[in-house]
Every structure is written in C-alpha cells, then in structure tokens.
Specification:
The complex is a heterodimer of chains A (112) and B (113). Chain A has 112 residues and is mainly β. Chain A is built from no helices and 11 strands. Chain B has no helices and 13 strands. The mean pLDDT of chain B is 97. The chains are: A mainly beta (112), B mainly beta (113).
Chain lengths: 112, 113
C-alpha cells in the first residue's frame, strides 16, 4: 500500500525555521518524483515544490522560492522541506505527495 | 502560469441525480510529445486529504466508482457524476500538471440537497 506520513509541523514564530519530513513506503521511492503541497485554513490547494527522482530537477512556487528547500534521501525513502524565514501566510497543512497519492498532512502554524 | 477556472463553485445535488463540474485552463494541457492531457480531478472529503478521482483527463483511478467520468480536450474539461451519492460530498478540484507551477482550480463544493 502506498503511504506517505508527514511530520514536523508545529507552531513557530514569524521569521523562524522548520523542517518537515515525509516517510514514504509501499512503492519504489527512488524512481518517483515527489512533491509538497499546502492548504491554508479554509482555502484551496497550492503546489509548493517538486523534486525529481534523482534530485536533478527541483522546482518551487514563487511564493516560497529562496526561503524553502526541498530534498530527499532515497536510501531512507524520505522527503524533506526546509522552511526558513517563515511568514504568517505560510500557515497551512503541508502535504507530501507522489503522483496520485497524498499523505494526511502536517499542520504548520506561523504566529507570534 | 496556467490559470485554472472551475464552475460552479457550489453545487447542491439531490441524491440519485447527475452532477457536472467544468474546468477551463488558460492554455492547452495537451502534450503533443506523448499524446497525454495532463488534467487530473481530485476530491477532498471533509477532514481528509485530497484523493485522485481521474488522472490524465479520463483515466479513472483505482477504486473510484464508475459513476465518475472525466472528459474534454485542449482547454475545456468536465467531471461528471452519473448518480450522486451521499458519500460524494466534499470539494472537487481540477489540477494541471503539464507545466510548473502546478496549478489548481478554485474548487467546487458539492453538497447534498
């Protein structure tokens, strides 16, 4: 069964940093591109970042470019999102995803 | 960026009746290199993460009831539910993944009358 389990979400002050993790299982992780999406409270879905299977190709939404860094460890079948210079508007549920499969998400709250 | 526009934004439906959601993209989602149209439909049920219903325009995902179907071409797409059931409530999103940034429609909230 394909599964992604996110962790690392918590309350953080504006300007702070956070690292999200995603543990993947049930598929050949090293052959799939992986993605992060987010959903602000009561709002729609937003793509955040993508990384190719070998980490050669990486893409970011303009809203997070220069502040967020996506990475992966194929040996640990894990995906990461390093988030720096966090803002109130980054408050959201962050979802780890593979094509067609999403995790349950982890909540990040940026507030003083 | 490719802009995705969904209509309607709210859809009240009587159980057993059909329903239809439209999605329009600001540019064609057809990839002439591989012949695929990169338009997916997701349903987010209350309190859950999004689940794929239809991928690449018209392919029904595993486990999705056959009352769901996707159609369209180029820039105009439709998700149809032949007979709505109570378990179909939630927010439906179209998503394009032809190009980065990946973009979504605003979402259509389906509710049971």
């Amino acid at each position: 069964e394909v599964q992604m389990v996110e962790s690392g979400g918590r309350l953080v002050r504006p300007g702070g940093s956070l690292r999200l993790s995603c543990a993947a299982s049930g598929f050949n992780f090293s052959t799939y591109s992986m993605l992060w999406f987010r959903q602000a409270p009561g709002k729609g879905l937003e793509w955040v970042s993508s990384i190719s299977a070998t980490s050669r190709y990486i893409y970011y939404a303009d809203s997070v470019k220069g502040r967020f860094t996506i990475s992966r460890d194929n040996a640990k079948t894990s995906l990461y999102l390093q988030m720096n210079s966090l803002r109130a508007e980054d408050t959201a549920i962050y979802y780890c995803a593979r094509t067609y499969f999403w995790g349950r998400g982890t909540l990040v709250t940026v507030s003083s | 960026d490719i802009v995705m526009t969904q209509t309607p934004l709210s859809l009240p439906v009587t159980p057993g009746e059909p329903a239809s959601i439209s999605c329009r993209s600001s540019q064609s989602l057809f990839d002439s290199d591989d012949g695929n149209t990169y338009l997916d439909w997701y349903l987010q049920k209350p309190g859950q993460s999004p689940q794929v219903l239809i991928y690449r325009l018209s392919h029904r995902a595993s486990g999705v009831p056959d009352r769901f179907s996707g159609s369209g071409s180029g820039t105009d797409f439709t998700l149809k539910i032949s007979r709505v059931e109570a378990e179909d409530v939630g927010v439906y999103y179209c998503m394009q993944r032809l190009d980065f940034p990946i973009t979504f429609g605003q979402g259509t909230r389906l509710e049971i009358k």
